Amino acid sequence: MQLPIWAQTALLLTLSNVFMTFAWYGHLKSMNSKPWIIAALVSWGIALFEYLLMVPANRIGFTALTVAQLKIMQEVITLCVFVPFAVFFLQQPLKLDYLWAGLCLLGAVYFIFRG
Fold first, then answer.
1. How many domains, the chain?
2. Is residue 115 over pLDDT 80?
């Protein structure tokens, strides 16, 4: 059984976002005492895996979705990955603003995927 295109895309984008989030923000906790250039090089190494998943995700998704739909899907997934990362890994407080941002993205999903 093969997953629908949107599901394949969402799965690959989710995995890509996990790497992206660690590449962009993980060094704030785990490499805080290292020089920024070291953190940047490690982040680039992690980001390679992000791109190895993101590029195929967008290519697969583009066979059935528009670029705008791909971008909005990416943003929703980014927030869904970032919030737990910020709360559990970076020990940031869970804010009501995350809910409001999520509701705004739901509006974006509605408008970009309707009709």
1. 1
2. no
